[in-house]
Amino acid sequence: MGEQKVPRHVAVIMDGNGRWAKKAGLNRIFGHKAGTRAVKDTVEICGEIGIKYLTLYAFSTENWSRPSDEVSSLMSLLVEQIIKETPNLDKNNVALKAIGDLSSFPENVADKLNQAIRFTSKNTGLTLTLALSYSSRWEIMEAVRKIAKKAAAGEIKPEDIGEKFLEQYLTTFGMPDPELIIRTSGEQRLSNFLLWQAAYSEFYFTPVLWPDFRKKDFLDAIEEYRNRERRFGKTSEQIGQKS
Ligand code: FPP
């Protein structure tokens, strides 16, 4: 990637596992299993090109309403992957984090996740954040609730509430906003993901189904992002277009 600028924070909506499995004549869970290879590739390429934050939408609040066998298979897969990959993440200086309502997760899943988070917490390379039982409206609602409690207790005044103040109550506090959000599988929606944080994000949509997503696909997204960045500071005349 040379000297060129990379975004600091890339967020990914991993979509299309079910369709991938269907095309292959397999059960949906095989799509999720195949998706773990794409997770690995994406984490690796982020480390290789010096991206500091990668956030993956792994399980939305709405995903709880999927058939219970799919939900429990996803939970098992998550625990299995965490146990298997934590030493590798650690070796590569990756710090694991999670955002979302972890209290809604089965205890063993939350325990394993918290252990992995603690184990990698000193790492200073990539911060890999898994959005689990996450939804933006839930996050914003929780923030408002906490702020309202403080106001009711007389600890803050309504005038104290500005953007920076509110951000302290979001699950992403301390992270820069994502400059780039990628969604796979041809869908072009944000689906309740990082609504506040995406205020100025660039969006990149690709028809590639998540299990087929490879380093090259990630680099294509980065390239597109850079082309958009290059156009930014210039007038249309400067880049040879009519306005
Ligand atoms: C969306 O595809 C994907 C998910 C709901 C789960 C993502 C999970 C993984 C890739 C598994 C492992 C994750 C980690 C972080 C180790 P979909 O099922 O909505 O696909 P469809 O729209 O084609 O049905």
Task: Please render the helix and strand layout as text.
Blueprint lengths: L8 E5 L3 H7 L4 H22 L3 E8 L7 H24 L3 E5 L7 H13 L7 E8 L1 H17 L10 H5 L12 E4 L18 E4 L9 H18 L11
Parallel strand pairs: 1-2, 1-5, 2-4, 3-4, 5-6
Helix pairs in contact: 1-2, 2-3, 3-4
Bound molecules: farnesyl diphosphate (FPP).
Strand order of the largest sheet: 3-4-2-1-5-6
- The whole-angstrom Rg is 19 Å
Biggest sheet layout: 6 strands, parallel
Share of residues in helices: 40-55%
In CATH, the homologous superfamily goes by the name: Decaprenyl diphosphate synthase-like
Q: Give the class-level CATH name.
A: Alpha Beta
Structural write-up:
The protein is an alpha/beta fold. The chain has a single domain (3-135, 177-229), classed as Undecaprenyl pyrophosphate synthetase (3-Layer(aba) Sandwich), CATH 3.40.1180. Helix content is 44%, strand content 14%. It contains 7 helices and 6 strands. The protein has a 6-stranded parallel sheet with strand order 3-4-2-1-5-6, sandwiched between helices. Helix 4 links the parallel strand 3 (95-99) and strand 4 (127-134). Helix 1 (17-23) packs across helix 2, helix 2 (28-49) runs parallel beside helix 3 and helix 3 packs parallel to helix 4 (107-119). The relative contact order is 0.18. The mean pLDDT is 94. Bound molecules: farnesyl diphosphate. Farnesyl diphosphate is lined by residues 14-19, 32, 35-36, 39, 56, 58, 63, 77-78, 81, 130, 185.
